[in-house]
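Milestone M4 deliverable, item 7.
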Amino acid sequence: MDILINDEQTLGQIKEAFNNKFPHLKLEFYDHEHKEGEGSPERFLLDDNHKVAEVRKKQNEGHLSINANQKVNTLESRFQEIYGLNVQVFRKSNQLWMQTTATDEWTLSHQEQKGEEHDR
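Output delivered:
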């Protein structure tokens, strides 16, 4: 799948496109970058209504290619490296959304499968 990243997109639109492909995963955008293996504090969470132009640190636009075999940490790094967007992947676990910090080496498909198992 490809997600369009440009100045006019809202963070919510990017999140929705991702969630349509991976219904048991979600993206959250933050004002500060996190280190590998660490979570992002809720106080830095950005509102879905922000436009990309308001929050990104790099002026690139285009389609970000995302595939199910991609590791979570690779996806998060690509958002940061290409667009200067700080993103964290979450997985659904029963009724809770959990940051995938301990399992960032898993692929998106593996994360989605685990989320689906815990959503039954």
